């Protein structure tokens, strides 16, 4: 099964510190939610640059510890933002929203 977000990598970045892992995990989830909202907001006026910037921002965070499917999809959106048609970009943004929700559900407690 493909890992949506590399929670093990984030734990390694926290050096196994459960409290730090919890804070980092919460910060990632909050940032991911905010970025998905920014991606969705950039679709209505179809702001390609805003889409690319938001995807880039979250791709960096999602890439911590080796990334996962979410990081790959975000990098793909970042590259596609300047050339792809609006309907396809909207599909990509919807998929990223689903992946963020899935990553949050998979988050270790």
Write up this protein:
- The protein is an all-alpha fold and 109 residues long.
- The protein has a single domain (7-106), classed as Four Helix Bundle (Hemerythrin (Met), subunit A) (Up-down Bundle).
- It contains five helices and no strands.
- The protein has helices at 7-13, 18-43, 48-62, 69-80, 86-106.
- α3 packs antiparallel against α4 (69-80).
- The protein is elongated, with a radius of gyration of 14 Å.
- The relative contact order is 0.19.
- The mean pLDDT is 93.
Q: Topology, please?
A:
Blueprint: H1 7-13, H2 18-43, H3 48-62, H4 69-80, H5 86-106
Helix pairs in contact: 1-2, 2-3, 2-5, 3-4, 4-5
End-to-end separation: 20 Å
Assigned CATH architecture: Up-down Bundle
Total individual domains: 1
Global mean pLDDT = 93
> What is the CATH class?
Mainly Alpha
Largest sheet at a glance?
Answer: none
Give the CATH topology.
Four Helix Bundle (Hemerythrin (Met), subunit A)
Structural class: mainly alpha
- Kindly state the number of beta strands: 0
Order of helices and strands: HHHHH
The helix count comes to 5
**Coarse shape:** elongated
Structure in a nutshell:
This protein has 109 residues and is an all-alpha fold. Helix content is 74%, strand content 0%.
List keywords for this structure.
109 residues; elongated; single chain; mainly alpha; Four Helix Bundle (Hemerythrin (Met), subunit A)
